Amino acid sequence: MHMDDPGDRVIIAQLLDDINREEVTEYQRPMLSAVVVRKEDGIPGPGFFKCAQKLGRYTVGPELDFYCEELQRVYDAWR
Question: Does the residue 42 lie in any domain?
């Protein structure tokens, strides 16, 4: 799989959403995909924030603040 391939990006995005859903709903852990970022700017893509909204993790406010907090929760959970 390669992120330059649009079809692969769709498959990878779905896998990350599935992992997030299981981490949040089954194990009450943060969204593990917070560690997956775009090389252009070092933050997750829009799909991360859409998934966070669906899972009730993110509602309103600066995306960067939510991302930094969620990433710290990932680090804390997996320490």
Answer: yes
Separation CA 32–CA 16 (nearest Å): 8
pLDDT band at 4 (very low <50, low <70, confident <90, very high): confident
Q: Provide the whole-model pTM.
A: 0.88
In total, how many domains does the chain have? Answer: 1
What type of residue is 4?
D
Taking phi over 0 as left and psi of -120 to 50 as alpha, with beta for the rest, 56 belongs to left
Q: How many CB atoms lie within 10 A of CB 68?
A: 13
Torsion of CA 33, 34, 40, 41, to 10 degrees: 170
In a domain, 1, yes or no: no
